[in-house]
Design brief:
With about 290 residues, this protein is an alpha/beta fold. It has one domain: Rossmann fold (3-Layer(aba) Sandwich). About 40% of the residues lie in helices and about 15% in strands. An 8-stranded mixed β-sheet has the order 3-4-2-5-1-6-7-8, sandwiched between helices. Helix 1 packs across helix 12. The two termini are about 30 Å apart. The chain binds adenosine-5'-diphosphate and magnesium ion.
């Protein structure tokens, strides 16, 4: 399958599951045979740490890719497993916010670097910081679509609504063709009434946007939700994806199923998604949630 997708994984809130989703959805997509690159764009470098990667001071990282126009993506990407590469970060990335300040085209550095990678990957997943600074703008500029991980909590919908509007504004200026295509429910507790209500409200909100000229008019709640599972929190201590750490866990099952529904969504022509409605939901996937 030839798909070239660059997905920015964004939520301005911390602790919602961005890094966990980038790591494990990426690993699951790689298992399905796609060539996947994970990009750690968060100065906290949690994604790199998740895989036990701690760049030495003179190792090239995402910082170099953004700041040095001679840096080459091939030299920086690290192979994690078959089909799964990582462009790592370290804490000097925090300085990128200011260091990028004076550079021409500072919003499009990541986009240019990835464009030069010559279709080496089918899918690029970008783990964004919990802020909407220049790093996140680089992600939105490079991306072809956006996934928003969230927890179905009180006020979550309000946060997502605000985030979508901000993404809409950025799209208008740096990347007009960008679309928000999926919401990933993380640490999901489907048995609670609150979670059920929040998901219902979210779906109703998205349905209400279908005819509107907004970048999230095709956005779906992706299935299945990722259940709360302690194995997902343990895996980073072992430097592994959930598939390597505990293939039999709920966490592994959920991220594999999510990867399946994401690739199914990508195979479905846009026109069909619009007609069929919830094209992201394979038969029976809802029963997990
Ligand atoms: P973010 O990147 O949005 O800040 P993380 O992916 O780092 O969020 O997740 C926050 C914390 O929650 C981490 O400790 C992570 O291990 C844990 N976590 C994420 N998803 C799950 C889950 N489905 N079940 C249990 N713990 C999870
Ligand atoms: Mg994170």
């Amino acid at each position: 399958m030839s798909i070239r997708r660059v997905v920015a994984i964004i939520n301005q809130k911390g602790g919602v599951g961005k890094t966990t989703t980038t790591a494990n959805l990426g690993a699951a997509l790689a298992r399905s045979g796609l060539r996947v690159c994970l990009v750690d764009l968060d100065p906290q470098a949690h994604l790199s740490l998740h895989f036990g990667i701690r760049p030495a001071e003179d190792d090239a990282t995402i910082y170099d890719l953004l700041l040095d126009e001679h840096a080459v993506v091939e030299d920086i990407a690290i192979k994690l497993e078959e089909g799964l590469d990582l462009i790592p970060a370290e804490t000097d990335l925090a300085a990128a916010e200011t260091d990028l300040g004076g550079l021409p085209d500072k919003q499009n550095r990541l986009r240019s670097a990835l464009a030069a990678s010559d279709n080496r990957w089918d899918v690029v997943l970008i783990d964004c910081p919990p802020s909407l600074g220049i790093l996140t703008i680089n992600a939105l500029s490079a991306a072809t679509e956006v996934f928003v991980p969230m927890q179905a909590h009180f006020l979550a919908l309000q946060g997502v609504g605000k985030l979508l509007e901000t993404v809409g504004l950025v799209c208008g200026s740096v990347n007009p063709s960008l679309r928000v295509t999926g919401i990933v429910l993380c640490m999901h507790e489907s048995q609670t009434t609150l979670a059920r209500e929040v998901v219902e409200d979210l779906k109703a909100f998205l349905e209400g946007c279908r005819e509107q000229p907004v970048p999230w008019s095709r956005c779906r709640v992706l299935t299945p939700p990722v259940r709360r599972n302690i194995k997902l929190a343990e895996a980073p201590s072992f430097g592994q994806s959930i598939l390597a750490y505990d293939a039999g866990s709920h966490g592994a099952t959920d991220y594999l199923a999510l990867a399946e529904s994401v690739t199914q969504l990508w195979r479905t022509p846009v026109s069909e998604v619009e007609v069929k409605g919830d094209a992201s939901a394979p038969e029976g996937a809802d029963s997990v949630g």
